[in-house]
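User: I'm preparing a small set of examples for a lab meeting where we compare how different chains pack in three dimensions. I only have the primary sequence for this one, and I'd like the structure in token form so I can line it up with the others. Please keep the answer compact; I'll paste it straight into my notes.
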Amino acid sequence: MSLHSNWNIREAHESDLPELLKLEHECFGSDSWSEDNLRSELVEHHTYYLAVEIDGRLVGYAGLSKLPANSQSDIQTIAVAPMARGIGLGHELMNRLIRRAVELGATEVFLEVRADNPIAQKLYRKLGFEQISVRKNYYRPDGVDAIVMRLVPDERSVQQPPQPIVLGIESSCDETGIGIVRGNTLLANVISSSMDEHARFGGVVPEIAARAHLEALQPTLRKALAEANLELNQIDAIAVTNGPGLGGALMVGVGAAKALAVATGKPLYAVNHLVGHVGVDVLERGVLETPTIALLVSGGHTSLLLVNDLLDDVQLLGETIDDAAGEAFDKVARVLGLKYPGGPEIDRAAEGGDPKAIRFPRGLSLPKDMEKHRYDFSFSGLKTAVARHVELAESRGEAYNKADVAASFREAVADVLVTKAVNACINHGVPRLLLGGGVVANRRLRELAQEQCDKHGIELRIPAFSLCTDNGAMIAALGAQLIIAGREPSGLGFSAESTLPVTTVQSR
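Assistant: Understood. Below is the structure token output for the 508-residue chain.
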């Protein structure tokens, strides 16, 4: 099966139960699990189940069990519909389960197979399983023996998935990013920023950003290829951000990606900028553990996401209803007479300041806001409160403590961001939080996030700063995940979409 096969392998969820039961009966007949047994398998914390879809139809599934205190793991089941056999799905499912077992600390993997199923036995032996015993009359009601097999995973048996080389293009705002990955391995990450050109305007000017992308794309691409020690013809696929972002800026990147795809004959994947910020974690960890809550904070976006599956189930829990957090930093910096961009300037100004000196408002945090805006953000009121504080002092001819104002403002932003993100983790039963976006560079935000996550037993993930800001590597990484999952390319018919919803991971 080629990299561009049309199957899609993802984690199985309880919502798949009706289709899984049909597949159970189709594959196993009288040996089928009951609805209650199958449901318990899907929801147990110590089990891991995968589902396979072809053209939206569920055609296979497989699962394993691995108790935390046990070095042994058991393949619980594997089933592929008759119409989907013979194309390598069983082999791929087994590889993924074995890799997962190893990731969970298993040193032995066991399974049972019917004695009258030589095809399955052949597959398991090919993967490195050896027979260790026989259970007589194990399968009822027909009394067929079960052959017990064991695998001791090694580098040979833990086969890696295809590792496509993907070039990613990011141009949603003021950074021209070109990244190159091989599967989950980062090969190059080159960013050209036009921030200095926007400084005198106190914010990003869309027309200037678009022109800067046009000027930067070619040299940035050349630098990335040189950094990766690759020629353009060695790239397997191209991925590009087609939204959300500034319309003109997106069009430059999309146009360049389409031109490269046509010129090279390489498949093209149009992907979501925000989901790219989440997917970049695979470059550091190798796999994105789900579910996860993701807090994305930048000059253009403040979004809180629930990611059940990177490619299939990304939900928007909340977002800013006015200014993004990064934009609020820029505006408050102007009020305090500081330079653009405001984030690092306010960080420096806050040194030595008292974060409790002024109790600035936490937008949409009152009980009355919880029903409609539990996970939404608002920073316009906070910005106004800072401006009034400064104006009042100046109108009285009084000096105000700039360090206290900066520290108190920063604390208010960090407090509301972290509180809502941690509450999302608690309320949805998700034990991990991922931070992304340029504002993650803020030291107090990282400190407070770590404090609150430690307090509530939540794992905090913060990628390297070069991977938090807008970059092409995250786009390439998301494109690679689509390829590994067998997704078809986007083609050339898609367009730049400035308001692309986060639920659309790939555009066509």
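A couple of notes for your slides: The domain at 292-462 is CATH 3.30.420.40 (Nucleotidyltransferase; domain 5). The radius of gyration is 26 Å.

User: Perfect, thanks.
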